[in-house]
């Protein structure tokens, strides 16, 4: 039945059409029209994303050393943020083939107000997402540059910009999750089977994030104004911080969930974890299995420990324990960089791919 529905799906119009070629190139989805004489962009299809993922995997090593060396700890934070800024930008605001809700689907007419809401939301994710990438990436690369220069004062200033941009991602993830909620409601035939389920953990997290969308926009705008000298009362700043920690926690929970294998796919939602690659041989195949398991169990830790620390920070901030909240969230950052889920995913999608079908 699913196959029959898929065959008659009605797509919406492609949004940001003038930028589609760039979006496809940056994500490695550009079609090679002439394989005997590819263009520069066809030859470098997806290189920025692939190169970043290939080196991102070294973050846990840097962070382990950083537990005993303050300078390396700063480098781990700057390196992680710089890589994440690039990957985030490719997959989020610059994702390829973004489209609007269709005029109608094969089940029911989609209300006009929901089609408008969906389209506005997609434009928001592109526009605001690109701006957030600039703030977040600017702070991360600023930390990286100041680390190389040995300028601790500049590092601290860049770190402030970095954290502001990091929390500003909350509104973009809320935007993405709102799109998932609307698709689940109106065009479930364009979702994978596990994404259609309205009762699993993934769907519930997306609904919570959708409800936090407008509050996130407001609180993140206010917090960003602080970079330009704005000051708020203690209670207002407390609300801003609580929403920041809460939103980061829901992101961590969903991200950890989709980076793992869910043994109970219907109840918890299936993950984005590929099965061990059968085209690999020998020691490379064994390495792939090891990294597969690292991603699986690392994703489970991501799904539990990181949201727990983020929400602990939110709760203690709410009751006035600001310093404890900051310490809890700092610990969350260390555990996030130590977690092998992202690193193992990067290795399997870049380094081990080179051995696929005897390429090497």
What does this entry look like structurally?
The chain is mainly alpha-helical. The protein has 16 helices and no strands. Helix 5 packs antiparallel against helix 6 (70-91), helix 10 runs antiparallel to helix 12 (234-258) and helix 11 crosses helix 12. The longest helix has 38 residues, at 112-149. The chain is globular, with a radius of gyration of 21 Å. The two termini are 41 Å apart. Mean pLDDT is 89; it is low at 1-8 and 262-270.
Furnish the topology, listing elements before pairings:
Elements: H1 2-7, H2 20-26, H3 40-43, H4 47-56, H5 59-66, H6 70-91, H7 112-149, H8 152-186, H9 193-196, H10 201-211, H11 213-225, H12 234-258, H13 265-268, H14 282-318, H15 322-338, H16 340-349
Helix pairs in contact: 4-6, 4-16, 5-6, 6-7, 7-8, 8-10, 8-11, 8-12, 10-12, 11-12, 12-14, 14-15, 14-16
How would you summarize this macromolecular structure in one to three sentences?
This protein has 360 residues and is mainly alpha-helical. It is built from 16 helices and no strands.
The total strand number stands at 0
Q: Determine Rg (CA atoms, Å).
A: 21 Å
The H/E string reads HHHHHHHHHHHHHHHH
Indicate the proportion of strand residues: under 5%
SS summary, helix count = 16
Shape category? globular
| Ends distance | 41 Å
Name the structural class.
Answer: mainly alpha
Main beta sheet: none
Which short descriptors sum up this protein?
disordered N terminus, mainly alpha, globular, single chain, 360 residues
